[in-house]
């Protein structure tokens, strides 16, 4: 099963918890055992699995990446000023693949799935969710 | 085929070579061609593919991440003092997906699979191994 | 379907756009809906999804990683002088998994697939492309 999710983003850099939406796709797929791949279409966004007790870690992620990859000092900035966003997206990566066990994602208690926006706000980020069954149905 | 591996860790930050355990799961799956996904359940651990000639690169990984992501300076540290561990885990990522060719993982000579512990020691880290066949059996 | 691609690299650190070659494998697989996994065999190379409008972002990637992970200061350098290459490869990672929709990779306009060479030049880097169908054929 494959499904496209659309997510609106509200600032230049922020993380959005999309675990519930992904879990709903997995549930509706009817897959009992397998894998789910979460992929964001866009070279200035990424997918990260991270804690969501509160928003402290999410804010720390934004601050860490700003420190490691400062804005405005890249060759690509001469084109559209978002060189840092591309570098952050490339380093974090656009996808994660998570096991499905007994019809649910095998996330631990503190693992949530986040869309990382590095060049927002955007009216919609497109996320492709692909659920594959171990046993073909 | 899906199998859960349990790995004990012995210090706060260290890498553990789990290649042999993963290879055993792939062998027992009977899958000839396909993919194996290795996923750690836990927001302060990660999976990295890396050389294992000796432990020099593993130690370098710990030192690099300590330098890039120092301890004790994050918002999340006000909660449980492990903000750096979450950031390291998020950046490295909880999973890798490796091709299976002729019943074996297509690792190169110097590629081994490591569990990265960033907030140990832990009695057990749970690693889900999912082996998918190209040809459904 | 599984296929091995061979890529020659020409300098110590550089990115090579392999999108067209991967797309050809996907097309020849006949898979309509599913996933394609791109995996480089080698502990000093990696796969990154990144923009390819021109070579500015690619050059920025090389510069960023040189800054974060300098050459010549690692324990592993006492063995073969490429500790930085291993660390870069481990952080970026050897693989990406991309959805296949209606027979084509679901890359966005600005997403291309790059082989990252961190310890070249090499006569050949081996890249395993695995295309899995959602519906078994």
**Computed Rg of chain A:** 16 Å
Please report the number of helical segments of chain A.
Answer: 4
Total number of beta strands of chain A = 8
Secondary-structure content class of chain A: alpha+beta
Quaternary form: homotrimer
Lateral arrangement of strands in the main beta sheet of chain A:
1-8-3-5-6
Task: List the secondary-structure elements of chain A in sequence, H or E.
Answer: EEHEEHHHEEEE
Distance between the termini of chain A: 11 Å
Biggest interface, CB < 8 A: A-B, 34 and 29 residues
Task: Indicate the mean pLDDT of chain A.
Answer: 96
* Main sheet overview of chain A: 5 strands, antiparallel
Strands, helices and their partners?
The structure is a homotrimer of 137-residue chains.
Chain A: E1 2-7, E2 14-17, H1 19-29, E3 34-41, E4 45-50, H2 56-68, H3 77-80, H4 83-92, E5 95-101, E6 104-105, E7 112-117, E8 125-133
Antiparallel strand pairs in A: 1-8, 2-7, 3-5, 3-8, 4-7, 5-6
């Amino acid at each position: 099963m494959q499904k496209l999710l659309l997510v609106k983003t509200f600032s230049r850099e922020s993380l959005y918890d999309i675990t519930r939406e992904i879990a709903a796709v997995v549930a509706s797929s009817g897959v009992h055992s397998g894998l789910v791949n979460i992929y964001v279409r866009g070279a200035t966004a990424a997918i990260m699995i991270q804690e969501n007790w509160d928003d402290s870690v999410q804010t720390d992620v934004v601050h860490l990446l700003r420190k490691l990859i400062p804005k405005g000092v890249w060759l690509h900035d001469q084109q559209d000023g978002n060189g840092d966003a591309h570098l952050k997206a490339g380093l974090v990566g656009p996808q994660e693949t998570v096991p499905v066990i007994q019809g649910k994602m095998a996330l631990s208690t503190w693992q949530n799935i986040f869309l990382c926006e590095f060049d927002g706000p955007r009216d919609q980020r497109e996320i492709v969710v692909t659920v594959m069954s171990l046993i073909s149905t």
